[in-house]
Amino acid sequence: MRHGGRILADHLAAYGVERVFSVPGESFLAALDGLYERGIPNIVCRHEGGAAMMAEATGKLTGRPGIAFVTRGPGATNAAAGVHVAKQDSTPMILFVGQIARAHRDREAFQEVDYRATFGPIAKWAAEVDQVERLPEYISRAFHVAMSGRPGPVVLALPEDMLSSEADVPDLPPPAAPVGGVTEAQVTAMAAAIRGAEKPLLVVGGPHWSAEAAEELEAFAEGWGLPVAVTFRRQDRLDNVSRAYAGDLGVGMNPKLAARLKAADLLVVLGSRLGDIATGGYEILDPASPPRIVHVHADAGELGRVFRPEVAVCATAPAMVKALAGLTPPNAKAWDQWAAEARAEYEGWQKPVATPGAVRMEEVVGWLAANLPEDAILTNGAGNYAAFLHRYYRFRRHGTQLAPTSGSMGYGFPAAIAAKLARPEQVVVCMAGDGCFQMTLNEMSTAMQHGAAVIVIVANNGRYGTIRMHQEREYPGRVSGTDLANPDYAALARAYGGHGETVERQEDFPAAFARAQAAGRLAVIELRLDPAMLSTSMTVEQMRAAGQARKG
Question: Is residue 229 helix, strand or coil?
Answer without folding.
Answer: strand
